[in-house]
Design brief:
Blueprint: E1 32-34, E2 41-44, E3 62-65, E4 75-77, E5 80-82, E6 89-91, H1 107-119, E7 124-130, H2 131-134, H3 145-156, E8 160-166, H4 184-192, E9 197-199, E10 205-210, H5 225-239, H6 241-245, E11 249-254, H7 286-299, H8 333-360, E12 365-370, H9 383-388, H10 400-408, E13 411-416, H11 422-428, H12 436-450, E14 454-457, H13 465-475, E15 488-491, H14 501-514, E16 518-521
Parallel strand pairs: 2-16, 7-8, 8-11, 11-12, 12-13, 13-14, 14-15
Antiparallel strand pairs: 1-6, 3-15, 4-5, 9-10
Helix pairs in contact: 5-8, 8-10, 10-12, 13-14
Length: 527
């Protein structure tokens, strides 16, 4: 069983929580803790009365690994769901540990935070390696200096490391408090050729990441996007060879799109999107339009080489559009052709990048992240999923082909929104017709059916017991006849709100339950 915990001492026998109040503003880019525990009962008197036995971490997240057999009996004790044997890892820390000059920010504070993590038996940390920092100024001019210093400090503290190849912009998303753009030289190319970026039908460019239309186009100072990604990953593998050889780096998560997720940037806040808008298709750069026209000609219908009509805008609802409404064009001949091509580009991008990732990191575990787009899931078209590239209307399984590609490359799936309850969504946004539970179940089963590991994380801040119980329910579903379960859970993220007394007490109880520790109500008889 593994639990990732924050760099804060949470057990009173060592120090009160207040002694580490500054941890809520720590600069560690990621920290996850792994705790091995047995399924024993303990007395819950004070949230500081436990000492966890072992622990791993990422910047901005709290991560949990889940072990043990599924299908064990779950008891309810004083409102807590108790699991017989599971694990939780927690990734925490804030963005900004590495400066834009690739220098380590405040190494002494970092060492102090790592010492605190180690004192509660954290197993390791997770770090985003930002493309916009490392290859910032010129093609193939890599500066790994700050990361090398960071990794050595982490290793000196005998912690393991997970690394994210972050080929996207940082900033503008939940919990982001810094801005890290794409490399300067890439932005210079983009100023001359804006079609290297995803583009909507109004020709607004999205600078979060590069369009997949240039994966094989030599438009990046003589290289294709795939070559750029591979050169970056290969440089990392060579530069940090010693850390791979001694097993210090245990996993590489490969960024595949905006926020590091495999999806189109279909709902960008900087273009005015607000929940629960359906988003917009992002295929109007000249490279993807060329691909679409070629596909239409190959199909024998050159007139189909265009984007769909009557799709609304970012904040439209499905029934307001001719394309996404019930019986709309999405399910007509052209609609099916377009959506198959659109989702096919996404799958092909994953296929190509993961092929190169396995070449660069041979022998190292690889993972990829998929977003949980649960709004409009209870409609026929699943419009928000369609614009994001998931061809998953009510009459088609859009996640099985993605799971098959991940299986092809023996890549683990990291999925979001396991803490969300459908009932809560109906109460807060009844018009969104959301079903996060249905989506989670579909995606998890698609992955389990092909036999790949599945990890997950929360989509929104979660501090309540109901949300934690939903995570536990999804982590080890009792009704699964094959005993399948999540391999890890990532909690997003360590914040001042989480560290408030009540919230932190709930979170501690959640982590303990992920490890199968039964919480008993406190009384003087068992004090």
């Amino acid at each position: 069983m593994a639990v990732n915990f924050s760099p804060v001492e949470i057990f009173g026998s060592f120090a009160p929580l207040g002694a580490y109040a500054s941890a809520s503003s720590m600069a560690v880019p990621l920290i996850s803790a792994v705790v091995n525990c047995t399924g024993r009962s303990i007395c819950s008197s004070s949230p500081r009365s436990f000492k966890l036995c072992s622990t791993v971490v990422k910047p901005g997240l709290l991560c949990c690994s889940v072990d043990g057999e599924a299908g064990e009996r779950v008891e309810e004790d004083d409102g807590y769901l108790i699991d017989g044997s599971a694990g939780a890892s927690l990734k925490n820390a804030q963005l900004g540990t590495i400066s834009m000059k690739c220098e380590l920010v405040d190494p002494e504070n970092l060492k102090n935070q790592l010492r605190i993590l180690k004192s509660i038996n954290v197993d390791g940390v997770m770090v985003d390696c930002w493309w916009g920092i490392v290859e910032a100024h010129a093609p193939q001019q890599y500066n790994w200096h700050g990361y090398k210093e960071l990794f050595r400090i982490v290793r000196d503290h005998k912690l393991k490391l997970q690394v994210v190849m972050s080929f996207h912009e940082c900033g503008g998303n939940v919990g982001d408090d810094v801005h890290i753009p794409l490399p300067e030289w890439v932005m210079e190319v983009g100023s001359e050729n804006p079609d290297i970026f995803f583009t909507d039908k109004e020709e607004r460019r999205n600078h979060e990441c590069l369009t997949w239309g240039i994966d094989k186009e030599r438009v990046l100072r003589g290289r294709t996007a795939l070559e750029v990604y591979f050169d970056y990953m290969r440089s990392f593998r060579v530069e940090f060879d010693e850390f791979f050889e001694d097993g210090f780096i245990s996993e590489i998560e490969v960024g595949l799109g905006p926020c590091g997720e495999l999806r189109y940037p279909s709902y960008p806040a900087n273009h005015g999107w607000m929940y629960p808008g359906i988003g917009e298709f992002q295929c109007y750069d000249k490279y993807l339009m060329k691909s679409l026209k070629k596909a239409a000609e190959a199909r024998g219908h050159s007139v189909w080489g265009r984007g769909p009509d009557d799709t609304g805008s970012y904040n439209s609802k499905p029934h307001e559009t001719g394309f996404f409404r019930d019986g709309g064009e999405y399910d007509g001949y052209y609609g099916r052709f377009f959506l198959k091509w659109y989702s096919g580009v996404l799958i092909d991008h994953a296929d190509q990048v993961l092929t190169l990732a396995n070449l660069a990191f041979e022998g190292t575990h690889i993972s990829a992240k998929l977003s949980g787009i649960h709004w409009w899931y209870k409609t026929a078209s699943h419009a928000a999923e369609l614009t994001a590239g998931f061809y998953n209307p009510a009459n088609r399984d859009g996640y099985a082909p993605i799971a098959s590609i991940l299986k092809k490359h023996e890549t683990a799936l990291n999925f979001t929104c396991v803490e969300l309850r459908t009932l809560d969504q109906h109460e807060d946004f009844p018009e969104a017709l959301a079903d996060p539970e249905g989506l989670v179940w579909q995606v998890l089963n698609a992955a389990w059916d092909v036999g790949i590991p599945v990890a997950s994380e929360n989509a929104l801040p979660c501090y309540d017991r109901e949300g934690y119980n939903k995570v536990l329910e999804n982590a080890k579903p009792l009704i699964d006849p094959d005993g399948r379960h999540l391999s890890a859970f990532t909690y997003l993220r360590l914040t001042p709100e989480l560290m408030e007394e009540h919230n932190f007490t709930e979170f501690e109880g959640f982590v303990l339950r992920m490890h199968g520790i039964r919480l008993l109500p406190f009384s003087r008889d068992n004090a």
